[in-house]
Amino acid sequence: MSVNTTFKASAVRPAMSRSTLVVEANKRVQKKQKVILLRDIEKLGSTGQLMNVPIGYWRNFLQPQGIAKIANERILEDLRKQKENAVRAKLEEKAQAQAFANALSTIGKFALKKKAGDKDQLFGSVTKQEIVDAIYQQTGRSIAEFELEVPDIKTLGTFECSVKLHPEVTGTFNVLIQREKNAQAKKK
Predict the structure, then answer these.
(1) What pLDDT band is residue 184 in, cutting at 50, 70 and 90?
(2) In this predicted model, which residue has the larger pLDDT, 15 or 186?
(3) Which of the 8 DSSP states describes residue 87?
(4) Average pLDDT for residues 101-121, to the nearest whole number?
(5) What's the pTM value of the predicted model, to 2 decimals?
(6) Whole-number Cα distances in Å, 102 to 47, 76, 95, 135, 147
(7) Who's near 155: CB < 8 A, 6+ residues apart?
């Protein structure tokens, strides 16, 4: 048996024309990165805020400094829960402030006794601290002096005061200034 096999070897390559190679990139390069800020950054955002920042800013500044994290689903979920808790806490704080404002209105008057001369003029004036102390004695709750708005009290009588308990809640009450008994006894 003889097998007739012929192999054709082509040593010469076929003639090709010169053409340019064109490469198409179907994938767009990411230019922005979603991050969550871990600290307040001036002119960028506050803690916990979700931001789109240039990838270079993220890679060269935010990441090495530990200022931000890449936003993924778990972190976004945690951020949403933190925001819900913050809103709930603010509503609760506002409700407590409103309840205290109602308590101040219900009590109505806080009495202070001061030394006074003729024509009901006080020796000195009533300070914010004295009013804060009177409120604390009757309600058991302390307020800061800077939250209190008091008119200039230099005579005996009733004066209306207000206290800023919350950015949206202001409580009003009256302060009754009375003559001290011993000052009256010495006068007679």
Answers:
(1) very low
(2) 15
(3) H
(4) 85
(5) 0.58
(6) 34, 39, 10, 14, 16
(7) 116, 120, 121, 122, 177
Contact 176, 112 (CB under 8 A): yes
Amino acid in the structure at residue 12: V
Q: List the 32-37 sheet strands across, edge first.
A: 50-54, 32-37, 68-70
Mean pLDDT of 47-65: 89
For residues 186 and 121, is the Cβ–Cβ distance under 8 A? Answer: no
**Measured distance CA(76)–CA(80) in Å, rounded:** 6
Q: So what's the pLDDT on residue 83?
A: 86
SS3 breakdown of the chain: % helix, strand, coil, rounded to 5?
Answer: 40, 25, 35
What is the C-alpha separation between 117 and 179, in angstroms, rounded?
9
What's the CA gap between 56 and 7, in Å, rounded?
60
How far does the chain reach from its first CA to its final CA, in angstroms? 154
- Phi, psi at residue 14, to the nearest 5°? -70, 155
Give the amino acid at 145: E
Rounded CA-CA distance 101/111 in Å is: 18
Give me the mean pLDDT over the 173-178 stretch. 88
